[in-house]
Each structure stands twice: as C-alpha cells, then as structure tokens.
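One such given next:

>
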Amino acid sequence: MDCEAWGPGAEHALERAFEHLGGRDDPESFQTDDPVVAPLLRRFEGLRFGRTGRVLERLLPTIVSQKVTGKGAGRSWQQILRRHGEPAPGPAPELWVDPSPERLRGLAYYDLHAYGIERKRAQVILDVVRRAKRIEGLAQQGAELAESRLLAMRGIGPWTTGTVLSGVFGDPDAIPVGDYHIPNNVSFAFTGEPRGDDARMLELLEPFRPHRGRVLTLLMYGGHSAPKYGPKMPVRNIRRH
C-alpha cells in the first residue's frame, strides 16, 4: 500500500490509512450460501469496510441528509463546503476540506436556509458543533457507547446513527433504520415483494448478523432495487421553515 498526503493533517492521515482502507475489516469471516447474497459475495470479493475514526465528518453531512433526497442533500452539503470550508491541500483542486466546528458555531439556524436546510436540521447541526470535542471523542469509546450517546441527542435517530457508525467504526453490522428506500430494496431482493417496512427488513437481515450492513452494501453494489412507483419523496421548500 503506497500513500501520499498533504497539509497539516498529513502525518495523521498516513498513520490511519490502513484503517481508512479497510485493513482491520475481515471480509473472509462472512460466508453464506444464500442464493441472493452468495453470488454478490463472489462478484465483489474483497469488499472492505473502512474505519475513519472521525465522527463529525460523517455526522454533519448525514444530518443534512435527513428526510430529503440524496441529490438535494448532496447539493446542500457542497454549498456548505464551498461557502464555509476551504480547498484541500495537494494536487486535487476539486477537493474541499469540511468547515471547522468553530466556523459553523458562528452561524445562526437561519443562515443555513440558504443551503436548503430548514430550522430543525439546522438546529441539530448547530447543537453538534457546539459539542464537537465531546462528540469527536466518541470514536475512542467504542461503537456501542457511541450509539447510545448519539441517540440521546435531540434530532439524531437510528437512521443517522446507523449511517455514522458504519463509516466511523467500519461496523459491517450497522444498518440505517428508517430509510425511505432500503426496506423496499431488501424486501424485493429476498422475497420479490416490492414494498417492505423496517420490521420486515430487520427480519430478512437477521440471519446475516453480524454482517447485516455488509449485506446491504452488497445488495446496493449489485443493483438490487425495488420498482419505483407511487409518490416520490418530495423536494422540500424550506423558505417558511
């Protein structure tokens, strides 16, 4: 593994590169003869879960993604990066560094309206950056404790927590409960039923514990998605929120 890094965090990035790239994951520990998953496991052999050990850089964009379309969330986060972040050091001018907690602490909730973020999500973001040091320290306390501490915060639920734990700890069992699409995709992949709820998703994934998140990733990479019909998730207008 050859790595290069730039900027004031270069040494730290190089020290953690092995974990970032999934070096501590053990994909060989997951074996199955399930007719849906086994072919995907062979097709995407070597898929690893990286462990960033960094909570805020995963948590903040995940909060932005709550209850909105992926496209809308991506646009909002890119706007925040360009307005409050800074260009990343090194030879890739298209990369930007996340805004610091100190930078975001100076904002009011209504400042985030310009990026399509209504008061509820904006307030959660501001609550998080005001507790940045404590929250970042959760990466050193283990996934179970981090989960309970995050869930105790206003505006952070199972979907956000599952998404964060997957990346911060490289947890192959973490799953985002409460997603708009994933229960349908899981139900359709395993049963052919085009619609499912969280309870059905958890039931179908239970045999794969402690690799439920790995199975979700394999299904996504394999293109397993339920038919799209009926009302779509609306694009929200937050000007009055």
Notes: Residues 27-49+172-228 form one domain. The first strand starts at residue 86 and ends at 87. The chain has 13 helices and two strands.
